[in-house]
Amino acid sequence: MAIHKLVFDDDFDEVCNTLIAIHCTLEDYRLAYLLNKHLGITLKRKPVDLDYSKKDASYAIYEWVDHKQLLTWNLVSNICKKQALQETDYRSLFNTEQTTTTFYLLPEHKTVNYFLKIDSEFSFSKEKYILDSILKIPQIATAYSINYSELQSKENLIFS
């Protein structure tokens, strides 16, 4: 009896994503508006934020599905700030003080404010055009591509 052996290539492990880091001080809704205007897309806020119960953090997320080119665009905040009241040990007029804890979606990129992730079923060749269009927005300090395969916490970028 013959033995048939199937060998799969490593193509299944590769994910075709474009990840763009955006540095700016804008609110998430304002950045989504400017990206929609300059890139000709229609990002809309998802009804539920990206929530990580382990960290007690949630991140604003916007999405647009381009059915023509089979692309999914996601704009997600990298920073989540939580405020909590903490009781103080020393005697004062007030027994509590407010502390702020900062969480990051991708801790290895703490200086990045937002990420624009583009999922596709084929390699995306318009990355340079998108970056140039983003850099033309005056409110954005800088934007650059990040190699998706070199990320340590890429599981945080799985949104579905």
TrEMBL record:
InterPro entries: IPExxxVDY_fam. NCBIfam families: IPExxxVDY. This is IPExxxVDY family protein. The lineage of its organism: Bacteria, Pseudomonadati, Bacteroidota, Flavobacteriia, Flavobacteriales.
